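Work Package 4 report. The design task specified in the project plan requires that, given a folded chain encoded as structure tokens, an amino acid be chosen for each position. We show below one input record used in the internal validation round.
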């Protein structure tokens, strides 16, 4: 059940059945407040046979790649996200 009432259209993180979800990109910083939940969600996707790519960026915090784009870790996060999106759009996932 969602805040709007019963629905079959729940966000993936609230679904009990994750089977059949499309390829998913997830990333978090190692100091990210939601890191463990993101890693757990990736594990749940893999357990259901879904394709998921997970990156945990050393030293990163929530949205750190947007706060300062100059550190190498931020540039790598942006590069990895762009590359995943390129592969997804090309149908390579």
């Amino acid at each position: 059940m969602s805040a709007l009432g019963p629905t079959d259209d729940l966000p993936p993180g609230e679904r009990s059945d994750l089977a059949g979800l499309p390829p998913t990109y997830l990333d978090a910083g190692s100091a990210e407040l939601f890191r463990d939940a993101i890693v757990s969600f990736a594990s749940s996707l893999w357990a259901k046979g879904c394709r998921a790519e997970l990156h945990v960026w050393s030293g990163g915090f929530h949205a750190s790649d947007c706060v300062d784009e100059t550190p190498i870790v931020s540039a790598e996060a942006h590069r990895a996200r762009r590359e995943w999106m390129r592969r997804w759009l090309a149908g390579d996932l």
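The beta strands are 24-29, 52-57. Validation will be extended to a larger panel in the next phase.
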